[in-house]
Amino acid sequence: MIFKTKLRATAAMLAMLAGGAAQAEVTVLGWPGGPEEAALRAVTEVYNAKADLAAENKVELLFTSREGFFDKLQVDLAAGSTAFDINLIATYSIGRYAPFMEPVTLSDQAGAVFGDTVLKTMQFNGAQYGVPTDLSLHFLYYRSDLIDALMADDAAKAKYSEIAMQYLGKAMEPKAPADWTWEDFVANALYFTQSINPDSPTRYGTVIQAKNLLFNMMVFHSWPRSYGGNWMDDSGAITVDSEAFRTALSQAKMLFDLGATPPDSTSYEYAEANAAYSSGQVAAMVQWNAAAGELTTAQAATGTTAPPAGPDGRYTHIHGLGLGLNKAAENKEGALAFLQWLSTEEAALAYAKAGGAPGLAAETAAKLAADRPDLVQVGEYASTYGFVMNGGTAEKALAVYEAQAKEFTGYWAGTQDLDTALKNAAASMAELLK
User: Fold this and answer.
1) Do the first three CATH levels of 22-136+319-387 and 138-317+396-432 match, i.e. the same topology?
2) What are the domain boundaries of the chain?
3) Measured by CB atoms within 10 angstroms of the end CB, which terminus of the chain is less buried, N or C?
């Protein structure tokens, strides 16, 4: 019964797509709703208005429901649908769709416009499968008023060092967040937790969203990556059971055990974590760049910088939405022409000005400083600190995140020990990434 229902839903989607595509020579199935749809509509108008564009290569856009989008898309691609020439892809689903798509060659401007790190979010097995359009990464958000007060108070600095010595074994001094390591992040979180420091103006030093949810793992991954962690090595061997993951998981566990994050954090995801910070009871947190407007509005004295550093450097998880070529496309020439144009500076700037969030290289982002200052920071962090785990674009990458969420959340919640969590995660990953 469920299978029949899915078939009917897919058939309805295909019929709708086919009907909408009847008058278009190049059809693009985009991500529906929000700034992504608005930006794609805007740049398509720019493209279609070009005087030298042949009528048979004009573009028409198609949008469906977000609900079940990726599953429906996989069914349509696997069925060889010709209802669209270009379709949406995401970093963590490229491997799932690659058998039904064709690699693309972008414009000769693409490297300068996006930078190598952002371009890699649309690559699989060394091939480019799409144009990056919208990028997600992480910021460290912090209460600048609290940090400024701490740095200006000798007695407070002494208390900070005392707490660091007690819990971390070293008399650390407070620093500006832009200079934080993950140890500084932990020390700051402990200092601003009232159960540890009764004089703290906030109840919790941080908030860690730790619900058993794959996207929460993406937020966490910047932590072990800065210690040299990865999913697997170049030979394909799973490397999650490593000192890097052990260190990051243990540091986070300390914050749970000592009450530096709300006690129900293991049920938190994006909205709950944002609400905790917005309430004024959290001193600092790592969260998606998309939360910047919400968090800075709720707490005006909020600063942002890149996530803390580890021995291997400073990193932020990145992933993106993009557009690629359907292998069954009926107008591949026209589709490739549109994709190549989308990877030019002209298109990227137009997309950003219309509300999109492309990850742009520094020189390109600088041209938007007045209109979109947030993208200057996003572009800088993506180019300088961005990473995709080895295997992060594999066919079953989402299932890897889900497996880690199950095991790591169990460790943080105290239902299993660290050895068991890593052993189980490694076993699941070996099966999923083989």
Assistant:
1) yes
2) 22-136+319-387, 138-317+396-432
3) N
Residue 166 clears pLDDT 90, i.e. is over it? yes
pLDDT for the residue numbered 24:
54
Highest mean pLDDT among 23-32, 310-319, 370-379: 310-319
Joined together, the tokens standing for residue 291 give: 């939360």
What is the C-alpha separation between 363 and 182, in angstroms, rounded? Answer: 30
Q: Which two tokens stand for residue 244?
A: 């890097």
99-116 pLDDT, tens digit each: 999 999 999 999 999 999
pLDDT score at 122:
95
| Residue 318 pLDDT exceeds 90 | yes
Q: Which two tokens stand for residue 415?
A: 């239902």
The DSSP secondary structure of 47-92, one letter per residue, reads HHT-TT--GGG-EEEE---STTHHHHHHHHHHTT--S-SEEEEEGG
Own/partner long-range contacts of 266-270 (Cβ < 8 Å, ≥24 apart): 266/210, 266/211, 266/212, 266/409, 266/412, 266/413, 267/211, 268/207, 268/208, 268/209, 268/210, 268/211, 268/216, 269/209, 269/211, 269/213, 269/215, 269/216, 270/209, 270/215
- Burial degree of 279 (CB within 10 A; 0-12, 13-18, 19+): middle
pLDDT at 33: 86
**Percent of the chain whose predicted confidence (pLDDT) is above 70:** 94
Pull the structure tokens for residue 251. Answer: 């540091």
| Owner of token pair 């080895």 | 390
Mean pLDDT within 27-48: 94
Q: Which amino acid is at 109?
A: Q
Q: For residue range 121-164, list pLDDT tens digits in order.
A: 999 999 999 999 999 999 999 999 999 999 999 999 999 999 99
Q: Using DSSP bridges, classify how beta strands 386-387 and 101-102 pair: parallel, antiparallel or unpaired.
A: unpaired
Q: Please answer whether residues 121 and 132 qualify as being in contact, where contact means their C-beta atoms are separated by less than 8 angstroms.
A: yes
Place of tokens 């910088």: 305
Its CATH architecture, for the domain 22-136+319-387, is 3-Layer(aba) Sandwich (3.40)
Q: Which of 118, 134, 130, 131 is nearest to 383 (CA)?
A: 118
CB atoms within 10 A of CB 294: 16
Query: What CA–CA distance (Å, rounded) separates 123 from 135?
Result: 14
- Domain covering 138-317+396-432, topology: D-Maltodextrin-Binding Protein; domain 2 (3.40.190)
